[in-house]
Design brief:
39% helix; six-stranded antiparallel sheet
């Protein structure tokens, strides 16, 4: 659920890691919005307590300071941030919604038409991406869809920046604590203080700060934690429980034995229960029980019995806190009576601090990757119905969970846009990089390419790709990657289709035809790269008879260690020829199997068949 901006909230710019000044990334979104919507004015406006800050602005830059001093209540953008809903105005001067109200800012600046989409982070509206013009106009559905896509990409960028800022702050906390640990180690060496169990407390803390700072996933945190405490403390159980909806729940741990039946209450409890985990979380301090009797007296026979099923007869529970809030508890359990002394308790408290930072950092990284994956997935829309053709697509993410890329496919009809009313546009592309930036640029490219196709009716794919590249140059969008764009239209001969395509450095499409070997359509042009002059781009044509299958794919399918691209392509051609008559989803699964079970790169596949009548 999207929450509108409230009166008491952190400034949106600070939350996204932005200074209250122009920002190159947000300026790019504003330029892109102005270009796509065909208006002179566009802005990325973020809500402060009662004002707007404008990190991205096109068309009114000379009035930026005056606009920043404008109260939210007097602007259309303020209405979007207050309601959390898109706002589309054909002519603010004649719009009954604003009759009798003080003049809104947009009208004061000579603007009449307005379209604004909310920008959200973690379900909260931070601001608006809007476009405006001086004359009344009726916005088209395609323009509003493009503005919605741009707002989603801009929101993803803001979420990425917020996550990066949180990760940076967590890293700074870890570095500060690392320095404290180093100072403690030196002080311990100078004083000759040694832990009673024979291990150096400061050295353990230093190891904890160093090793846990490198944890990238929650599973990494638990694995490193077990390795840290197993030798000096020799526990039988080390676990982390996180607070979720008023209950402490154990984190899944692949490195421990499954919890036996009846032992669940030892590791999971409500925050208000009489339980050592809940006790530590509520009182924000270390709690311990040195033997089964003490555990039973403090928390009851039921809790003591659940821990006994885990072979835990003594324990220490330490709260995990971050930014003043408890979000979980660290449990160390021993199989024999164990009374933790002051030194051991201090060390465990310090280790819990490092664990807390590592958990928060891993969660932020996981959220960042999840946001990018969601953005990438949102761009891969359902395939349209295509009378006279069969379509199927498959997207496979790389085996490395922390990478997101710019691979994508697209297909959409073009009624009335080409000589054939039932024509279909198909595309597949790969934006350079494996990060949030690649996923964001992929979304921008896909939206801009659709618009370029729609803006050039009757022309071939080369004209649209050329327009895309020219727009990227004007908007200073550093587009780098490969792209194949094609049109499919019924041919004059019965049942056949004409395939017209242009290739900007992308792996060649593969064609399997009845009675002939599958082949590569090798014709191609220069890839997309900032500053690189591709020269004139050309369209190529091939007729597809009934039974023909066309396969578009990204390089993750054929670019893999241990084999050349030519060898891998030959494998794909052989599979395509052998499986040409199978249902397209089965054919795509067979083709994808060529890349192995754990591909190193994302793979996008799009297959089109001309069926027999």
């Amino acid at each position: 659920m999207v929450r509108p901006a409230g009166p008491a909230r952190r400034p949106a710019a600070r939350q996204a890691g932005l200074a209250p000044a122009p920002d190159a990334g947000m300026e790019r979104f504003a330029r892109l919005a102005a270009s796509v919507m065909g208006v002179p004015v566009a802005m990325v406006a973020l809500a402060e307590a009662d004002r707007l800050t404008l990190p991205g602005l096109v068309g009114l830059k000379e009035r930026r300071d005056a606009l920043r001093r404008l109260p939210l209540s007097r602007s259309l953008s303020g209405r979007v941030t207050a309601t959390g809903e898109p706002l589309v105005v054909t002519d603010v001067r004649a719009d009954a919604r604003f009759a009798g109200q003080p003049p809104v800012a947009e009208r004061q600046w000579g603007l009449a038409a307005y379209a604004g989409m909310p920008l959200t982070v973690a379900g909260q509206v931070l601001g608006v991406l809007c476009a405006a013009g001086p004359a009344a106009r009726a916005w088209t559905d395609a323009q509003l869809a493009d503005l919605t896509d741009l707002a989603a990409a801009c929101s993803a960028e803001l979420r990425s920046r917020a996550a990066a800022r949180s990760a940076l702050l967590a890293q700074q906390d870890a570095e500060r604590d690392h320095r404290v640990a180093e100072q403690a180690r030196l002080a311990a060496e100078q004083a000759g203080v040694r832990a009673q169990a024979g291990w150096d407390a400061a050295e353990l803390l230093l190891r904890a700060s160093q090793e846990l700072a490198g944890a990238a996933t929650l599973d990494d945190v638990q694995h490193l934690l077990r390795n840290l405490v197993s030798d000096p403390l020799k526990p039988v159980r080390t676990s982390l429980s996180l607070l979720q909806d008023g209950r402490l729940r154990p984190m899944p741990d692949t490195g421990t034995e499954p919890v036996p039946p009846g032992a669940g209450p030892a590791l999971s409890c409500a925050l208000d229960e009489n339980h050592p985990l809940a006790h530590a979380a509520r009182e924000r301090r270390l709690v311990s029980a040195g033997d089964p009797g003490e555990l039973a007296r403090a928390y009851g026979e039921g809790v003591a019995g659940a821990f006994a099923l885990l072979d835990v007869r003594a324990l220490v529970c330490v709260p995990l806190a971050h930014a003043g809030e408890v979000h979980g508890v660290l449990l160390i359990g021993w199989g024999e009576p164990h009374h933790a002394g002051p030194s051991e308790r201090a060390v465990l408290t310090a280790i819990a601090g490092y664990v807390s930072q590592a958990v928060q950092r891993a969660s932020v990284l996981d959220e960042r990757v999840s946001v990018a994956r969601q953005l990438q997935s949102a761009m891969l829309t359902d395939l349209p119905a295509a009378p006279g053709l069969d379509l199927a697509a498959l997207y496979l993410a790389a085996a490395t969970d922390d990478l997101v890329g710019g691979d994508w496919y697209d297909a959409f009809p073009l009624p009335g846009q080409t000589p054939a009313a039932s024509a279909l546009t198909i595309a597949v592309g790969d934006i350079t990089g494996h990060d949030m930036q690649a996923a964001t640029v992929m979304g921008q490219t896909r939206a801009m390419l659709r618009q370029a196709v729609l803006d050039h009716p009757g022309l071939g794919p080369a004209a649209a790709v050329t327009a895309l590249q020219q727009a990227c140059g004007v908007l200073d969008l550093h587009l780098s990657g490969t792209l194949l764009l094609g049109h499919l239209a019924p041919a004059a001969r019965s049942g056949s289709w004409c395939f017209t395509w242009t290739n900007a450095g992308h792996p060649p499409p593969l064609l399997a035809r009845p009675g002939a070997p599958a082949e590569c359509l090798e014709e191609h042009g220069v890839l997309l790269f900032p500053g690189l002059d591709p020269g004139p781009r050309h369209d190529h044509q091939r007729f597809l008879k009934p039974g023909a299958v066309l396969l578009l794919y990204t390089d993750g399918l054929v670019d893999r260690p241990g084999t050349t691209i030519d060898e891998a392509t030959a494998e794909v051609i052989a599979v395509l020829g052998a499986c040409r008559d199978r249902p397209l989803p089965d054919l795509l699964n067979a083709v994808a199997a060529v890349a192995g079970d754990h591909p190193d790169d994302d793979i996008a596949l799009l297959a089109i068949r001309v069926p027999h009548r």
